């Protein structure tokens, strides 16, 4: 890889920032496919492929909002204002991607490794979308705990809704990420 290619890759990583206000355009089918290809190369012990994605866009967002309200009700939420608010959540972006972890039992691959694999897949997804000019925000919220929602998505109660990724174009420019002092987080181990 050339020096300039290395620089570009690192700029893309460093410039990624979560953006809450997302508008059209959303990625095309081809652009999404590129991002899913990147996501599905994430490290994955024994190649169990525990990660699944579900795309929700356009008019489907209203129906998904209704599903989110049912999920919140499943978690014993009764406040009508909260139930109405969650119906609007899918409209925070033109496109949503649910990242799911379908856990498998394997003698050498504990569940936490499979969840980490989904995390790596999501980061690849975010970086690919960012490289293609889009912005994202990885969210969760109480609804991810709903067994009703898991069942609705074809998951078992033990499986995970690991993220609701909001995808679109940044509505406004935000300040660049502050420099990170790696010394605070990195130690060189010595015996
Ligand atoms: C698994 C996961 C779930 C998250 N859920 C939420 C959320 O529900 N709401 C939220 O504001 N941020 C959430 N975040 C944090 C944002 O995605 C983001 O990382 C954080 O705001 C820091 O911004 P940055 O990505 O620009 O560094 C979540 C992050 C992760 C990894």
Helical region count? 6
Span from first to last CA? Answer: 35 Å
Q: Give the averaged pLDDT, no decimals.
A: 97
Helix-strand pattern, N to C? Answer: HEHEHHEHEHE
Described by strand count, sense and barrel closure, the largest sheet is: 5 strands, antiparallel
| Percent helix range | 25-40%
Q: Identify every distinct bound molecule in the structure, by name, code or SMILES.
A: flavin mononucleotide
Beta-strand portion reads 15-25%
Radius of gyration from the CA trace? 18 Å
The tally of strands reads 5
Q: What sort of overall outline do the alpha carbons produce when their principal axes are compared?
A: globular
The SS-based structural class is: alpha+beta
Low-confidence stretches: none
Secondary structure topology:
Blueprint: H1 3-15, E1 22-23, H2 29-39, E2 51-57, H3 60-74, H4 80-88, E3 95-101, H5 111-131, E4 135-139, H6 147-152, E5 160-170
Antiparallel strand pairs: 1-5, 2-3, 3-5, 4-5
Helix pairs in contact: 2-5, 3-4
The structure holds flavin mononucleotide.
Short description:
The protein is of the alpha+beta class. It has helices at 3-15, 29-39, 60-74, 80-88, 111-131, 147-152, and strands at 22-23, 51-57, 95-101, 135-139, 160-170.
Tell me about this structure.
The chain is α+β, with helices and mostly antiparallel strands. The chain contains six helices and five strands. Strands 1, 2, 3, 4 and 5 form a five-stranded antiparallel β-sheet that branches. α2 runs antiparallel to α5. The longest helix has 21 residues. The radius of gyration is 18 Å and the shape is globular. The model has no long low-confidence stretch (mean pLDDT 97). The chain binds flavin mononucleotide. The site of flavin mononucleotide (FMN) has 8 residues, from β4.
